[in-house]
Every structure is written in C-alpha cells, then in structure tokens.
Amino acid sequence: MSMSSGIAFKPPRVPLASLKGLSNSKQHLQAVLSGRPLPKYPPLRLSQILQLIENGNAEAVTLVEWLGLFNDDFSLLDESEEQRACLLLWQAISNLPRVARLALYIAANYLLGTQSRFPESLISTLDVASEYLEGINQTRIQWLIAIRDEDFKEVIRLAFSEKSTPLTFSEKIGMPDSSCIRDAVLHSLPGYIDVNLDPKHEKLVEQCITQMTLAERVNFFDVILEKKSETIEKLLSALESNCLPDSQNSVWAKLTPTSRDILSKKFQLGGYYNLKGIIDCICLAENAGQLQLTDRDIQQLRGRSAFWSNYSEHFNQSLLLLPESTAHLLNIKNDERGGDVIVMPPNSGNDAEVFIFELADKIIVEVLRGVASEIRFFELNERNRARLLNDNTLTLNNIRKMACDTVFDHVALWQYFCEKCLREEFNILPNKHVQIFAGLGKKFGEYSRKQGLPLPSEENIDLRVSQLAEWNSIFWSREARIKGGGKSSETNNGWNFLQLAKIASARGYKKEYSELIKRAADHGNSEAMCLHAETVFTAPNKTFNQWAAAERMVSNAHARGYVGAQKLIEKYKLNVIPASEFSNNDFRTDNANSGAEKKLYFEGLNLPRSLSDRIEHKSERPLVKLKIDELERLSEYLNDKTLKKVMINELEKRASKRRVLDLLSQLKK
Fold this sequence. Notes:
Layout: H1 16-19, H2 25-33, H3 46-54, H4 63-69, H5 79-95, H6 97-111, H7 120-124, H8 126-129, H9 135-148, H10 152-161, H11 169-172, H12 182-196, H13 202-210, H14 214-227, H15 236-242, H16 257-266, H17 272-283, H18 285-290, H19 295-309, E1 315-322, H20 324-329, E2 341-343, E3 354-359, E4 362-367, E5 375-379, H21 382-389, H22 396-400, E6 406-408, H23 414-424, H24 441-445, H25 458-483, H26 489-507, H27 510-522, H28 526-537, H29 544-559, H30 563-572, H31 597-603, H32 609-612, H33 628-635, H34 641-652, H35 658-668
Parallel strand pairs: 1-2
Antiparallel strand pairs: 1-3, 3-4, 4-5, 5-6
Helix pairs in contact: 6-9, 9-10, 10-12, 12-14, 14-16, 17-19, 25-26, 26-27, 27-28, 28-29, 28-30, 29-30, 33-35, 34-35
Protein name: EH signature domain-containing protein
InterPro entries: ZorC_EH_Signature_dom (IPR028943)
Organism: Alteromonas arenosi
C-alpha cells in the first residue's frame, strides 16, 4: 500500500553560487592543514619522538603524541637515558609555544593534585627547563619549581614581583586554579612579611588581605599580633583598617584576647573602644546565642555603644565588669587585660556587663543590659576614682549600694534626655564634629550644639511616660532590696516626678514643670530640691521666707552629699545649715543617696581603708566593730558634731576603761 499522500513536492534546489568552489575543497583542506603534523596511528613512541627532536624535526610531533608523552613515566629508561630524554624534551618544548603552554599547564595540574600522571623526570628537571624558557613561561616554570619544593614564600615573592597577590597569581599567569595550596601560602605570608617584604609591596599585602575570607583574616592577624611583633609596624595601615573596633567589617570581635590587648596598647584604645569591642564580641551570633540574648537585647547593646561613640573623644580611664559567664565565653581572665577588665564572681546581682568610664568631671557607670538597667553618674574625685576604677574587687552589686549623683533610665527616648542632661546639667558636649548622632539616624539624630537633638514626637514622649512608670517601680524596688530597709515610696515617687518634670520641660510646659519639680522636691529628691530652689533664687518677686525655705532645701541636699548643691551654694553665696539640724525625716532617700543615709557622714570622710572597711554603715551602731585604738584614730578625722555624737554614743555603751573615758572627754570638749 502506498504511503504517499498524493501531494507531490519538487526536489530542493541548491543555488549554483553555493556550489562554486566545491570542486577545489580537497585543495582547500590541504592548504589549511599544511604545516600541521597530523595524528598517526600508532602514535610515535618516546624513542621516536626523541629521534625527531635530535634531527631537528620536533614540530613533526603532534599534540596528541605530546599528550601521550606527558602521561608516560619514563620508567623503562636508565638514569643516563632519562637525563638525555628530559634535556631533549625541554629543549623542544621551549621552542614550541603551544606545547610549552600545554606541558606547563599539565605539570601544574599534577603538582596541584588535579591530575594523576605526569613524568616525574620532567618534574625533577624543571630547573633545566628554566634555562630554556623565557617571558611568561619563565615565570610559570619558577612558580612550578616553588610549588614542587613547597617553597611557598617563593610563591609569594614571585606574585609580588609580578605586581599580583599570591591568591590570584595562578590566574594571572594562565595556570590552573591553585586553591589547594591556598592554606599553605597564607600560612607562609606572615613569615614572608616579617623577613622579606619589600616596602613597595605593602599595598599588595593589603590587597591580599581583602581577598581573604573572614576566618583567614582573623587567623592572619592573630599570627601577626601574637607571633610576629616586628611585623606590626609594617602593617599599621592594614591593622587600622581591619582590626580596630570602629573600622568597617572589623575582625576585632573574633581576635583572641591577647591580640586585642596588643592592639589596645599599640593604638592606645582605651575608653570608648573597650566598650565597643566588648559589645561587638557579645553580639556575635555564636556568643549571643550562648548568652541567650534576644534580638532586642542585641539592638539595645548596639544602641548604647553607638550613643557613647558620640562622646568617644572625651573618654579617659575606663573599666569593664563582666559576669563570669560572659568572661568564660569570651575567654577573658582578670589578669589578661592590664587591669581594664574585672571578672565578677557568680552572683544573682552580678548578671550584666558594666562599663565604667571618666567623662569630663563625671564617672559614668553604664549597665549594659538587664531588666530596668541604668546609667549612674558619680562626681569625679579621688575617692570615687579609687572605688570605681581602681578596685579589683568591684562588682555591680557593690556599685548599686553606693551613693551617686544621678541615676538615668534606658526606656524610650533615653538618648534624647540623656544628651540633654549631659549638655544642660553637666556641660558635657559630644565630639567636636558630631552633626548626626550615631545610632539615631538622620531624622532623629540631627544635632545642634546649642539646641541638642530634635524634640521627639508627642507619641514617643507618651510612650516614654508609660515605660517610665514600669522602670521606676522595678528599679527602686531593687534599690530598696539591695540597700535594705524595704521599698521607699518617697524615693520612687521623687525620682518619677523629677523625670516627668524633665519631660514637661522638653515639651515647653513651664507650669507643669514647676509643679512636678515641687512635688519631686517634697518627696525628698535632692536634684529636684536644687532645681526648685534655683527657680526661687531667680524669681523677681521672691520673699524672704521663700528664699530661706529654698536655702534650707539646698542645705538639705548638700547634707545628703548631692554635688549640685555645692554649686548653688557658691553661685548664690548661701548660708549652709549644718547637717546636724536636719531630722531623720529630712533625709528621706532619693536617687543620689538611696539607702545611704546611715553611712553618709562617715563615707564622706577621707578615711584609710583599714578604718572605712570596719565601719558598719547601715547599722544602728556603725562603730561597734572598731577597737579603742581604731576609734582613737577615727576621732582625728571628726570635725562634725553629728559624727562626734555617733562616736560618743558608741563609747558610752562600752566599759568605763581609762582610754574610753579619755576619748569621751576629748570628744565632749
């Protein structure tokens, strides 16, 4: 049966023009292949190839036959024949550019482990080949010799001499990928830099560093810093751009504590960099996970670091307190950081990192995380410097028992109000060239040295007010628990009214500000007392009684140890009322001295530690542990009637021995 559909097609027609010249195709093929050796079967053996080379006909050997030769091992040749063969082959290869490129490429693959066979005789006689090869092939053969001899410093030298980095050199000279020797090259790089580096190649070293992975950079700089100290001077620029805490994509947090310590000393990284460095370390994903930090925790830590970076130029001495868990995780020990880190003993109250630093005439304690964490401001004096910056037994718990000038929160808008406090109350301004506050972005961080930061929105201010209530309750409850005596509602309310007054001031609500300051002062807040008193001193129509009441408020705050009171006394030439004239009710706790009333007087004395440590500051009998000779020594420091009265009360409770009676007589004069 016919499969035809019945439709007839004309056969295709090829244009005559396309057939033109077909008759000469054989001649065309011969012309193209002329001069090229054609494959033969069977291919030439080694002896035949050597014979052709000796007769000057090396070009008659085909690429296929060369490939076959490069897969031979010359194992049947004796030593003299092998040397003769290698000499002839390298002579021929050097005169045939395509064969030379092929031979060196395959030799490289063999040395790099990506090809299983290549004549060992040719590998061992690469030095012979270097006598015949020129130009790029000479560079390639030198590179192969260095790899063969595992002389990776020579690999580095060759790369630098060709204005390349050792990690990209194989690509530059047209050789196979050399990733398999990458580790060995990087391992040799610090030693090469230490001994052999030409100063004109320092930029190539920096370029090489940029080509390293993060782990490679960390290892490289750890080796340089810990084992190649003489090399540090050659790499100052690279260290500065890669390793300092504030450099972009810094490896600081991943370096060993020893390396970080060396960097700190070399670049004098005191102050702010200690803060940034520890926060960067804590916030690394692996560390944050083990410390069980949430994303919010990490955000808060970075925010606190960013805020204080705006004041970094004014930092002086600083100290880090680390919980034992953090120190163990970061492999930090007390004796490894030259006294700028203290590892706190495990304790429920020592569970947060603390950064303590001098800023202008203040010592600031920044509690970096935790529930109701805070900032504490202390007056910068020798006593506070000794107990906050030079006491290797210091803990967060101890700090929270101390009297301070001011406490600040970490709730919404804390940066705005903290900057305002620093600028207006303490005359502390940010770094000279700060125009945008780090950590706040352009919208919220545009900074004026006169006006400060932009006023926040009403919505955000309302959020701060609501968050303050919770922070206030938690913080002051903890203060009362730590310092004893139960919760002080006076303290709680006094501090809260003060913060609300500051918010009202920021909003421009003058009447509300005055009312809130007065309420805070009435609740015993020392700072509020002084702020309220100053409004009286500057009022145009003040009465004598109003001045006297304000003067009493300042004297009260001064008796509590509030530093701002002394400034008002000097400014307005006030008559200071003696502390002994204030009753216990006048010494209700506040933010500066919560829980510290009983130790206020003695703590204000510049006592030897041997005496100060013996005083039971919170006891009804603070001097009960002191022996008579210690009481005699202490009496030499007493000028205040109230302090003398405390000692008299103690002595009257003791047996009537001669030394006791003599001291009593002396104190009552």
